[in-house]
Task: inverse folding
């Protein structure tokens, strides 16, 4: 069977890597892919379609008689790629445009959670500057969390520590329109305290299977300081999400979410990402839903999947997820993101990436590329997050050590990475 992975980041490299391990898969195309998927060799090949070029991808899927297309990022979901493929009778794994609203509209997601009594921060929705300003001027507690409802490349959330910051945020959103139409609607919600974790389910709309719970490291600086990024590293399993906590997540969040989506006529099929805040007593609430796997969380949860990913996704498409083999590996995984100096602000692209030959002898390490390009001879940086160095090991501590050891064999001008990935599991 031939498979297509749509997207070009680290998550998509990890999806391509997992797909290529399947004995049933003869070819893995990645659109547009990156320098890592370009140099994997074997079954994997990049094809030059943008991830949001729905028409182009549809034509390609038809002409290649693809057995399965897996959607990595959220933008093609919002463009209705799953509806288009399904409409043309092509097997595709991901939620429809309507179901993906759990991610693409925060107003939809919050109202949905309210309708179905799913635990989340209390909130109000605003469509104009004036009422939002009145609300923030009279708010008795800070921080307040201000969110553009639409997709904003992970940047549309402002945690305002005080009134001044909050008013600045709504001025940026409503008046200066820094996120354009994405902020036509704005959610203002209560600040939740606790620790964040990510739980991913594969679901056919009714049945579901969980990958191992993970924790991302969103801030650029050590000890979770500085600006928000796409994610600077991750590890799994996250001890914070104990069996007991996961049971609560299942009963209070996952089951009512899938049931609610079914009863509202938009069954949710695909990867479901639940961004959680877990308070001091182990009570979970939803910070956000995403309609996809996390990046860099995919780079730790997929290497820990023992079962065949493609068989699992196919079973899910056939509504037979409950019967599919599903096994996780023992042990743990850590991924450390190597970024371009200056990220998440401006940074220089085109730096040559040098890797020591010794890396090849590390069987427990996989290098997932994100912002890289390969011109046939040289591998160069082409983005803020450049590489995710993943190590699997019997224990979390060992996986952290191995990932950092491997990172030491890679260099490019201006390379930056956090030195404390995984440390919060021990705090
Ligand atoms: P989101 O895009 O909704 O996940 O928000 C991005 C980040 O903002 C989250 O990962 C949290 O770190 C933070 N955040 C969002 N909503 C809240 C909240 N209600 N309370 C505390 N932190 C939040
Ligand atoms: N790592 C966070 C995300 O993928 O949204």
Result:
């Amino acid at each position: 069977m031939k498979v297509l992975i749509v997207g070009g980041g680290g998550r998509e490299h990890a999806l391509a890597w997992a797909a290529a391990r399947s004995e049933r898969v003869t070819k893995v195309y990645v659109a547009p892919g990156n320098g890592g998927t370009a140099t994997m060799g074997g079954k994997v090949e990049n094809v030059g379609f943008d991830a949001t070029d729905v028409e182009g991808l549809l034509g390609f899927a038809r002409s290649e008689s693809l057995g399965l297309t897996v959607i990595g990022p959220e933008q093609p979901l919002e463009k209705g790629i799953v509806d288009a493929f399904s409409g043309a009778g092509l097997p595709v794994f991901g939620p429809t445009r309507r179901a993906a609203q759990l991610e693409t509209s925060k107003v939809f997601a919050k109202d949905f959670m309210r309708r179905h009594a799913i635990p989340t921060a209390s909130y109000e929705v605003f469509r104009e500057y004036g009422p939002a300003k009145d609300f923030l001027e009279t708010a008795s507690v800070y921080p307040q969390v201000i969110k553009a409802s639409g997709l904003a490349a992970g940047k549309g959330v402002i945690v305002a520590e005080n009134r001044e910051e909050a008013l600045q945020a709504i001025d940026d959103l409503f008046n200066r329109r820094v996120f354009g139409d994405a902020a036509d609607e704005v959610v203002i919600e209560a600040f939740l305290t606790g620790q964040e974790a990510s739980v991913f389910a594969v679901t056919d709309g009714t049945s579901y299977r969980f990958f191992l719970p993970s924790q991302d490291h969103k801030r650029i600086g050590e000890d979770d300081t500085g600006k928000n990024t796409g994610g600077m590293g991750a590890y799994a399993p996250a001890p914070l999400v104990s069996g007991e906590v996961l049971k609560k997540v299942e009963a209070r969040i996952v089951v009512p979410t899938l049931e609610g989506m079914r009863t509202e006529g938009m069954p949710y099929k695909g990867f479901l990402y639940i961004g959680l805040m877990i308070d001091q007593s182990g009570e979970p609430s939803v910070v956000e839903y995403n309609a996809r796997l996390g990046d860099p969380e995919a780079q730790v949860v997929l290497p820990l999947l023992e079962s065949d990913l493609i068989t699992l996704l196919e079973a899910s498409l056939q509504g037979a997820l409950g019967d599919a083999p599903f096994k996780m590996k023992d042990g743990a995984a850590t991924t450390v993101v190597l970024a371009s100096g200056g990220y998440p602000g401006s940074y220089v692209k085109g730096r040559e990436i040098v890797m020591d030959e010794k890396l090849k002898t590390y069987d427990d390490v996989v290098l997932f590329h994100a912002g890289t390009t390969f011109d046939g001879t040289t591998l160069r940086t082409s983005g803020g997050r450049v590489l995710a160095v993943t190590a699997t090991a019997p224990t979390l501590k060992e996986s952290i050590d191995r990932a950092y050891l491997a990172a030491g064999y890679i260099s490019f001008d201006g390379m930056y990475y956090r030195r404390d990935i995984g440390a919060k599991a021990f705090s």
